[in-house]
Amino acid sequence: MLELNFSQTQGTHCLTLNETLPASGITAIFGVSGAGKTSLINAISGLTRPQKGRIALNGRVLHDAENGICLTPEKRRIGYVFQDARLFPHYKVRGNLRYGMAKNMAGQFDKLVSLLGIEALLDRLPGSLSGGEKQRVAIGRALLTAPELLLLDEPLASLDIPRKRELLPYLQRLAREINIPMLYVSHSLDEILHLADKVMVLEDGQVKAFGPLEEVWGSSVMHPWLPKEQQSSILKVSVLEHHPHYAMTALALGDQHLWVNKLSQPLQSTLRIRIQASDVSLVLQPPQQTSIRNVLRAKVANCYDDNGQVEVQLEIGGRTLWARISPWARDELSIKPGLWLYAQVKSVSITA
């Protein structure tokens, strides 16, 4: 568990935090340049010293301004992966990985190398590696120090699209297979969508939202960040049943379900889905003899005008689903908060 209760001023920028972050999974730190993302992880790592407040990791105090406590970075047991890999150019990959390796990690070396897919790189120098390969080595080096927390400061920012696609699956595997919490700084919605368990949105040094990905993504805080054509909902669901004859899988959403093309995941496994607001239409009565397989009973929580369209926030079993309709449809159906209706979902995509 990471306890953050501090304030830090650098020039005209002030960063103020009072949050407790989980001891597992990936927490994404999201915001525009200058929002305070890098300042936050620099304070956690010990690269900067907040003027007020306290930082503690798993009950161990890292910084306490009032009591004069400020552990140096090397004593904090925190791994840090920068935008640029910062590998030692004169060491081969094997040497870079073993530099600073904790004694208790020696038995984990081969497993971690395999997990990152860098077995074939061990005897190569950093200068011969691609950007994605360098970042995988940098992540491995950080993990071999046996950290209690891993900080990643926009590790994909300097990579082109093919290299980003190359590295994302490795980050997903790490999140599943190692028991080390990660703070992942990014301004990329796509990276957050595929990696994050929780999201913290920073704006001008203040926390605007913090919580599970699906809750923050569905909140009004995220709407300014999503292009109009990408307004969507993220929902956590579980595999309910497989229909072999039609090659379809049912996903449980509260006491209702959604059908998608057959998945390989076993029953009861959880995953996240994404539904575009433009793929949701609304009707007042359950349709008869329709080709749309997914019709969900929902309650209108809110609706508002947005550049000639109407964004409708629906509540389904405690989850948020967004729909985009025309003002004409809104008026004709008398859609307003509190109304019960049916949402027809035309398309569902799997995110993680």
Automatic annotation (TrEMBL):
Domain ABC transporter: 1-229
Pfam short name (any one): TOBE
Domain Mop: 289-352
Superkingdom of origin organism: Bacteria
Any one cellular-component term (Gene Ontology): membrane
Gene3D superfamilies from the UniProt entry: 2.40.50.100, P-loop containing nucleotide triphosphate hydrolases
Molecular function as annotated in GO: ABC-type transporter activity; ATP binding; ATP hydrolysis activity; molybdate ion transmembrane transporter activity
Protein name (record): Molybdenum ABC transporter ATP-binding protein ModC
Organism expressing this protein natively: Salmonella enterica subsp. arizonae serovar 18:z4,z32:-
